[in-house]
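re: that chain from earlier
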Amino acid sequence: MNAELITRFKNVASNGDLIEMVIWRLPRPVPPCTHRFKYRLAYIVGGSRIIGFDNERGKGDHFHMGDREYPYVFRDLERLIEDFLVEVEQWRTER
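^ sequence. v structure.
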């Protein structure tokens, strides 16, 4: 089985803010993850990533808030997208 693209979503708001989500189903997990998804969800303002959720070999699931990185507990794709959108909305509300 090859990698299967689950979603590739990109939305540019009228003010230029960008939300992008790319999710793949993989034949095997990317260590140290135990799930078979590779993902990148990003909220970009003025050309800078403000919020990002991703997983990469050796680092596993994590998210970025500005310049800081935090561990993320992956449950399922629905929760991943929900958690990302909640963080985006919270950041927008606080600004």
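The beta strands are 4-12, 18-25, 37-45, 48-56, 60-65, 68-71.
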